[in-house]
Structures are given as C-alpha cells and as structure tokens.
Amino acid sequence: MTEFLKRLVRTPQGAIGLVIVFLVLVIVLFGPMLAPHDPESLAPLARYKGSSAMFWLGTDQYGRDIFSRLLVGARATVTMAVAATFAGTIIGAIIGTTSAYLGGRSDEFIMRTIDAVMSIPSLLFALLIVNLLGSGTVNALIAVSVAFIPGMARITRSVALSVRKQDYVSAAIARGESAGYIVVREMMPNVVAPIIVEMTIRVSFAVMLFATLSFLGLGAQPPAAEWGLMVSEARRYMHISAGILIWPSAVIAIVAIGFNLLGDGLRDALNPRT
Question: pTM of the entire structure?
Fold first, then answer.
C-alpha cells in the first residue's frame, strides 16, 4: 500500500487529485458540522450580501449563507454521484465479464445490445429514464446508474477477454465450477484495476450529470442544498449578485476535475508496465 501511494503521488495529477478528493471526503463527512450557519435559515434583510467575515461567500436571494449551503450540499451531490457510479460499475462489470466468459453468439448478442444503448448519449439516456420514473433524487440516482452500465460493460469485457484465456480460468472450468463462480471469483478480481480507474473518472461525470438533472428540475427539489439546484435557482439573480451562481458552479468544476485527476493518477499507478 505504501509503494502504491508513492507511485500515485509521484505524478502531479495523482497528487493534486488525491488532495482534492480527500478534502471533498472531509466535507462530505463533516460538512454539516462545519457549516457556520443554518443552510435553510431565511434572512430577507441579508439578501445578496457579498463576502464578509460573517458570510464568507455571501448570501443568496433568500439571505441563506452560500458557504454553509455548499458544505451541506456536498453530502447530497457527491454521495449520490459515488453511489450511482458504484452501482453502475458493479452491474456493468458483471455483464461485461459474463459476456467475455460466455463468448460466441451470447457474447455477440450482449455486446450488440450494449452498443445500441451506448449510441444514446449518457445525459439524454438519463433524461429519458428520469422522465419515465419521475423527478426526484432516488430516480436521478437510478437514471445515472443505468446510463453508466453500458460503458462499464464494454470496458470490462475488453479486459476480461484476455483473462478468459488464462490457465486458472481453464482449471476452474475443468473442476466443474459454475459459470457464476468463475465470473465472480476467478475473472472479476483480475479485472478490478481498470474498473477502479474508470469508476474514479466516471464519478466526475456523475457529479455533472446529477448537477444537470437538478438544474433542469429533475433531480433534487427545493429547498435542498444541492449544487446543481443552487445554480438553477441562482441564474435568475446573477445580475444582482454574481457570486450566487459562480460559487456552486466552481465547486462542481473543482470536484469533477479532482476525480478526473485522481483517475489519471490511478491509471499510472496501476499500470503493470510501470
């Protein structure tokens, strides 16, 4: 583990990404306790305030502290993004590994179906699912998870095809092990490295997808302190106070960049050639 961390922080993108993601994790865990004000407290006389000692990032159109809302909103945005990515990754990895194990016509059928679904952009696919299920945070989580499954299945299959030819898989088949056992116990543990890298990178896309769905009114609903919803509510008042729009937008961008950089660092650290 120590050697792995050394390889990870040896690259600038890995070190920066690790720092950003660590700070995000701290905010997700302790954000509500660190918030200096009640994020839902309304103060009509303190609307559109700029940065000050009392309100570090100013206040919004209802007089709520933007900094406190960002801290509290991290738990909703980032947690849901990670959960959706994890669910989509697990299901996609199982489908991709199973397809590689089966081979032949079964593999062809599964992959052609995956290719057909992948032809739909992730955002459009998520919008279609949310429109079918209805607006809400849970439905947005399901939509993002399903939208990520085809891509993860395709990536996992490309790695699992080489694993399928290994001797330990052939030995498991010779022992008479079931297909489920071989896929879960023999093949999936040996394709986990590229899956972790891809999952880390996809968290950044999940954060932006959740923010987009909330921005369109299909994810979190008012008065939730969700970053995308904060941007949606602020666009009508940006001419009065630009910070209402800039701060949540900047946080979304920083978190997305952080997970992307961490994914690049993990790719280099887990590269068997290095």
Answer: 0.85
